[in-house]
């Protein structure tokens, strides 16, 4: 009898297969993404606390919260634009603080609560190619205040989002060196495209993520969920993609059609007191010459060079004199491609490729917000010009949510939660019989 019990015990005795940290993190990253998409991601007993600096409307916070299936708890945010803080507080609570971060940090009466994660993008105009006098721009130094907050709140992870031109600059190296002095010895940085994560917009951004525990390079850059299908009739075969670059089975990039085709023609020229999405779906009153220009380039993808070719009499002299560059200026969007980067003056076709694919007009505020992946029920505050700035400066929430997946995996691997699993539907590990 004793021998039988011994054999039985041996038969049912199992030991977990050894898994390296990277494999475990990638497995948890996939599980986090899938559970979040099913709205079944577990709520930790003690949610991870979040601070958002230079928060704007809160697009990055949005991706880290319940709006997109995550459970990070926003506890503090700051921006120097009052309209941005009004928008932020309207959607996330009353913890958004208006003011200059330099003054706030110098005020001993203001206490910023501790947080696990600090996110945000120190104003990027100093690095942007659109700023021609950026070498002496004092805004290049606001990353110092950002990292001071990281230090004060005792964050375990920070995420900086910025323009790609930041990478490789002297300030970039100073950011890395200062973060390491604060204990963030594990840092990943690189350039990523928001379209690879479900945003209908080819928006390239620089990401810098620092961690005090696990090397973020184990999960960054985030594995892609979408792929560029190729254009000009050439389709890419997703089965040929490298498995380590993608999550599960990737799908094609989202398109302008996916984002805005269901919207009717806009009404009026200002914000309307109607239910979303139509509240921000208003147009402009173009002057007759502008309308003639719109109609002169009716096909998808046309731009200022087509205008010059087809209607030189309507083409501004400055465009005629500029023989190269600017192929997206006064450009018409394609229905079945992603948009290009949405900026703050998307309502001005002369600023970029912002003409509607079919209608003779620039895109509306609602269309821009959708291309930026803001849900229709997200409430913007301010004038139409201020709202346009908020939309154009925002981190696309869908993109932010994918970053949050990886941050969640790093934090959860550092501090085991939910009995070894970070999602409700516990993933079974592979086991081998002893």
CATH architecture of the largest domain: 3-Layer(aba) Sandwich
Low-confidence sequence ranges? 1-18, 417-434
Tally of distinct domains = 2
Topology as a string of helices (H) and strands (E): HEHEHEHEHEHEHEEEEHHHHHHHE
Description:
This protein is of the alpha/beta class and 434 residues long. The chain folds into 2 domains: 17-256 and 396-418, 3-Layer(aba) Sandwich (Rossmann fold), CATH 3.40.50.150; 258-393, DNA Methylase, Chain A, domain 2 (Alpha-Beta Complex), CATH 3.90.120. The protein has helices at 2-12, 21-37, 59-63, 82-92, 101-105, 143-152, 170-181, 256-260, 288-296, 304-310, 317-321, 365-371, 384-393, 397-414, and strands at residues 14-16, 49-53, 73-79, 96-98, 117-120, 157-162, 186-193, 204-211, 224-227, 246-252, 431-433. The chain has a 7-stranded mixed beta sheet, with helices on both faces. Helix 3 links the parallel strand 2 (49-53) and strand 3. It is globular, with a radius of gyration of 24 Å. The two termini are 22 Å apart. Residues 1-18 and 417-434 have low confidence and may be disordered.
């Amino acid at each position: 009898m004793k021998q039988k019990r011994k054999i039985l015990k041996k038969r049912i005795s199992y030991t977990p297969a050894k898994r390296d940290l990277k494999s475990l993190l990638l497995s948890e990253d996939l599980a986090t993404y899938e559970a979040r998409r099913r709205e079944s991601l577990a709520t930790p007993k003690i949610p991870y606390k979040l601070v958002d600096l230079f928060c704007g409307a809160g697009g990055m916070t949005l991706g880290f919260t319940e709006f997109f299936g995550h459970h990070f708890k926003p506890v503090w945010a700051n921006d120097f634009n009052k309209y941005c803080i009004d928008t932020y507080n309207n959607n996330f609570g009353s913890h958004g603080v208006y003011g200059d971060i330099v003054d706030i940090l110098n005020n001993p009466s203001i206490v910023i609560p501790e947080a696990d994660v600090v996110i945000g993008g120190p104003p990027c105009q100093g690095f942007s190619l659109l700023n021609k006098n950026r070498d002496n721009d004092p805004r290049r130094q606001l990353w110092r205040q950002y990292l001071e907050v990281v230090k004060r709140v005792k964050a375990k992870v920070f995420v900086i989002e910025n323009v790609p031109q930041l990478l490789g600059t002297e300030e970039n190296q100073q950011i890395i060196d200062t973060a390491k002095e604060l204990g963030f010895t594990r840092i990943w940085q690189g350039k990523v495209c928001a379209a690879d994560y479900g945003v209908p917009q080819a928006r390239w951004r620089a990401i810098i993520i620092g961690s005090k525990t696990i090397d973020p390079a184990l999960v960054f850059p985030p594995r892609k969920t979408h792929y560029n299908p190729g254009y000009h009739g050439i389709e890419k075969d997703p089965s040929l993609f490298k498995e380590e670059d993608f999550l599960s089975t990737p799908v094609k990039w989202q398109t302008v059609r996916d984002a805005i085709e269901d919207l009717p023609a806009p009404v009026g020229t200002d914000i309307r007191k109607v239910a979303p999405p139509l509240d921000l779906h208003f147009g402009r009153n173009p002057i007759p010459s502008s309308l003639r220009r719109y109609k002169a380039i009716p096909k998808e993808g046309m731009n200022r060079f087509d205008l010059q070719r087809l209607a030189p009499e309507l083409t501004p002299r400055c465009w005629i004199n500029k023989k190269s560059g600017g192929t997206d200026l006064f450009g018409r969007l394609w229905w079945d491609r992603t948009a290009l980067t949405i900026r703050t003056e998307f309502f001005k076709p002369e600023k970029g490729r912002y003409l509607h694919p079919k209608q003779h007009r620039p895109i509306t505020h609602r269309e821009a917000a959708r291309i930026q992946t803001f849900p229709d029920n997200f409430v913007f505050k301010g004038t139409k010009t201020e709202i346009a700035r908020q939309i154009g400066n925002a981190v696309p929430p869908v993109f932010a949510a994918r970053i949050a997946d990886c941050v969640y995996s790093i934090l959860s691997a550092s501090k085991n939660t939910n009995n070894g699993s970070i999602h409700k539907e516990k993933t079974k590990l592979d086991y081998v019989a002893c």
